[in-house]
Amino acid sequence: MTDLVIIAAISIFTAGMTVSFGALGPALGEGRAAAAAIAAIAQQPDAAATLSRTLFVSLAMIESTAIYCFVVAMILIFANPFWDAAMQVAAGG
Amino acid sequence: MTDLVIIAAISIFTAGMTVSFGALGPALGEGRAAAAAIAAIAQQPDAAATLSRTLFVSLAMIESTAIYCFVVAMILIFANPFWDAAMQVAAGG
Amino acid sequence: MTDLVIIAAISIFTAGMTVSFGALGPALGEGRAAAAAIAAIAQQPDAAATLSRTLFVSLAMIESTAIYCFVVAMILIFANPFWDAAMQVAAGG
Amino acid sequence: MTDLVIIAAISIFTAGMTVSFGALGPALGEGRAAAAAIAAIAQQPDAAATLSRTLFVSLAMIESTAIYCFVVAMILIFANPFWDAAMQVAAGG
Amino acid sequence: MTDLVIIAAISIFTAGMTVSFGALGPALGEGRAAAAAIAAIAQQPDAAATLSRTLFVSLAMIESTAIYCFVVAMILIFANPFWDAAMQVAAGG
Amino acid sequence: MTDLVIIAAISIFTAGMTVSFGALGPALGEGRAAAAAIAAIAQQPDAAATLSRTLFVSLAMIESTAIYCFVVAMILIFANPFWDAAMQVAAGG
Amino acid sequence: MTDLVIIAAISIFTAGMTVSFGALGPALGEGRAAAAAIAAIAQQPDAAATLSRTLFVSLAMIESTAIYCFVVAMILIFANPFWDAAMQVAAGG
Amino acid sequence: MTDLVIIAAISIFTAGMTVSFGALGPALGEGRAAAAAIAAIAQQPDAAATLSRTLFVSLAMIESTAIYCFVVAMILIFANPFWDAAMQVAAGG
Amino acid sequence: MTDLVIIAAISIFTAGMTVSFGALGPALGEGRAAAAAIAAIAQQPDAAATLSRTLFVSLAMIESTAIYCFVVAMILIFANPFWDAAMQVAAGG
Amino acid sequence: MTDLVIIAAISIFTAGMTVSFGALGPALGEGRAAAAAIAAIAQQPDAAATLSRTLFVSLAMIESTAIYCFVVAMILIFANPFWDAAMQVAAGG
Amino acid sequence: MTDLVIIAAISIFTAGMTVSFGALGPALGEGRAAAAAIAAIAQQPDAAATLSRTLFVSLAMIESTAIYCFVVAMILIFANPFWDAAMQVAAGG
Amino acid sequence: MTDLVIIAAISIFTAGMTVSFGALGPALGEGRAAAAAIAAIAQQPDAAATLSRTLFVSLAMIESTAIYCFVVAMILIFANPFWDAAMQVAAGG
Amino acid sequence: MTDLVIIAAISIFTAGMTVSFGALGPALGEGRAAAAAIAAIAQQPDAAATLSRTLFVSLAMIESTAIYCFVVAMILIFANPFWDAAMQVAAGG
Amino acid sequence: MTDLVIIAAISIFTAGMTVSFGALGPALGEGRAAAAAIAAIAQQPDAAATLSRTLFVSLAMIESTAIYCFVVAMILIFANPFWDAAMQVAAGG
Questions:
Q1: Residues D9-33: pLDDT tens digits?
Q2: What is the tens place of the pLDDT at every residue in N4-51?
Q3: Residue of J5, J11, J12 to mutate when probing chain A, most A C-beta within 10 A
Q4: What sign results for the dihedral spanned by CA atoms C50, D26, B12, L17?
Q5: N or C: which end of chain G has fewer CB within 10 A?
């Protein structure tokens, strides 16, 4: 196997695993927060505005960990510095 | 094995694993949020509109992590930059 | 092993795993949402229409992650771009 | 090993795993929904018709993920396009 | 190893695993549904007929996933198309 | 290793694993159903007949998945079609 | 390794694993059923006879899955048809 | 490695694993049953005799699965038929 | 590796694993039974004698499974029949 | 494989795993904290300011562990000292 | 590798694993029993003496399984009969 | 592979795993503590100062385990004594 | 690899694993006991002395299993009899 | 690979794993204890001093297991006796 293929294969595999493992925690955490918010609004409809605001801030915070994973996966597929370095070597070799 | 086959095999395997692992968390999280919303509507039917709106925003947020996975799987199958690069090399070699 | 066989084997294995792992989360999530809806209808029969509507929207949303997996599995079996590329090479070689 | 045997072996293994892993989630989800329906009918016998209808729709929805798995397993055993292609090659070779 | 032995070995192993993994989910799901039905009959003996009917429909639905597994296992042992094809090749070879 | 030994080894291993994994789910499910029945009889002794009947039907249903496993294990040990075919080949070879 | 040793080794390993994995589920299920029965007798001492009878039937049912495993293990150690066949071959060889 | 050593090694390993895995389920099940019995006696001291009798029957039943494992382990160490057969071959060889 | 070393290595490893895995279940089961007994004595101090007696019988029963494991480990280290047989062969060889 | 490729491959794989495993704990922890805050605001709307402040401090604290992981992943991709050292050797070699 | 090194390596590894796995169950079980005792003393301070005595007997019983593991680990490190036998052979060889 | 590359690869892999596994426990523990604090403030707003102080001390204590992991990861990447020693050898060799 | 290196490597690995696995159970058990003690003191402040004494005895008992692990790890690093024996051989060889 | 590299690699890997696995238990245990303390202070603000003292003693006790792990990791990185011995050999060789 040439060096380029090794880097390509490991990048593809890692990108997929990163984004799929990284979806597990945030999805469960957001589901819990959303469930709590919905139950809270039903219990105290007058505070719906405050509750929604708190929910959205929390969802954004939790989603951020999923976005870290997505960003890393995108970097590995489209802006992989190791791949670029290997391409330069291959082009110049 | 030629280089093309390695990239094809790892892309196929990763695409499938990404989308199937990535379905676990969102499905459980959405199930929890939906269950909470349904219980809340039964308890406070007057707030059904607010509750539905909160539920749909939450479902969209949770679904986003599943969509990240689906997008990455589609990229790996239909717009894989490593495959394109390898095809160019094979075509030009 | 020829290249075609490798791609065929990995596609078969991945298609099956994708659809079976992808069934776990949605089935559990839908079971939870359905259980909540049934308990809610028993508790508040007057809101059955609203509850059913919310349930069906939620089930559709959760089912979507299972459908992503099924779609990917079908693509891998019947419309696999890597297989097509390899067939063209084999036909033209 | 000839190519045909590899495809046959991986198809057999994948078909069995697909249908058995795919039975886990739906069976648990349906058990949960059914338990909720039975408890709900005992609590509100007058709404038995609505509850049964909701239960059957939910069971059908959950069962669908198990059926996806069964369909994929049947395709892999009886209508495997990769096997057909390999048979044609073997017949024509 | 001849090709026939590989197919036989993988069929035996897959058939056993399919039916044993496939028994886990349905057995747990049916246990849950049955427990709910028994508790419901104790709580509302007058609705025993409706409850039994709902239970039996649910058990049949859940059992279906176990039966899918049993059917696949039986096909793999007694009506395996890959084995038949390999036998024909061996007989005609 | 001769072909016969491979088939014998894989049949022995699969038969044992099938019957032992297949005992897990049914035993837990039956334990749950039995516990529910016993609690229900204590709570409503007058309905003991109905409850026992429902329990026995449920136990039979759950036990069926364990019996599928036992049947497959017995087939693999005492009526294994692949072993018979291999014996015929060995006897006639 | 001679063929006899392979069959002996796999039989020993499988027999042990079968009986030990097969003890997990029944022991937990029986523990649950027994706990329910004891709590029920404490709550309704007058129904002790009915409860004991139901418990013993249930324990027998659950124990049956453990006995399947024990039977298979004993068959593998003391009445293994594959071992007998291999011994005959070795004796006649 | 001579054949005798393989059988000795696999027997030692299997005996230990059998008895240690086989201790997990019964110990947990007995703990649960004992806890229920103790709580029941505290709640209903007058029924202590009936409760103790039910507990001891249940413990004996649960312990039986651990004893199956112990028996198999002892057979593998001290009365292993495969070892005896191999010793006879070695003595007569 | 000489035969003696293989038997020694597998005996050491198995003895340690047997006693450590075998400690998990009994320790948890005894902890549960003891917790129940302590809570029961606090709730019904007058029945402390009966409760202690039931606890000690139960602890002895649960401990027995741990003792099976300890006995097997001691046999493997200090009275291993396979080691003795191998030593005799080595001494007489 | 050249040394550079080994370092590139292990850096890519580690970066992805770090950020995806590292998202699991914080997402679940933040979901729990957010759910508690939302329930608390619904219960005590007057203390919303104090509760929000406590929530944000806690979220920041929990998020810090996810950020450690993201930082390490970024260092491994864009500022990897081992890669720099290997590049210098390769450039100077 | 000489025989002595194999025995030394496997003894070191097994001793460590034995004592660390063996700490899991007893620590959890003792934590549970201690928590129950503390809650019981708070609820019934007059019975503190009886409760403490029961707790200490139970802790000793649970600790015994951890001590079995520690004893086996110490035997493997400081009084390993297989090591002694191998040393004698090495000294006399 | 040169020695330097082995040390670099294992350092990169270990640093990432250390910080990502090390984030799991603290994040969950802090989430639990924060949830308790928020619920407590809602229940007893007057004690908010004491509760916040206790929370912050606890968070710092829990965070310390995550910081141990981060410190070890940073040492492995930027101040690795084994790498320094290997660099000296390489520079002086 | 020389014999000394094998013993060193396995000792390092085992020491680390022993102390880290051995920290899991005691930390969880102590957390549970401490939580119970704190809740008990809040409920019955008058019995704080008795509760603290019981807590400290229990913590010491639970900590003992962690200390066994730490002791074994320290022995493996600083007073390893197998290492000493190997050093003597190496020094005298 | 030279001996030094093996010891360095295994030390790096073990140090990281030790400190990250060792953080799991203490973080969860401390989170539980802290949550209990916070809830207790909210319930009984007058006993805050006693509760804080008990909490800090417990946290110190639990943290000790994490510190054992950190100490072992630091010893493996900065004061590794096996590394020192190997360095002496290398320096003197």
A1: 999 999 999 999 999 999 999 999 9
A2: 888 999 999 999 999 999 999 999 999 999 999 999 999 888 888 999
A3: J12
A4: positive
A5: C
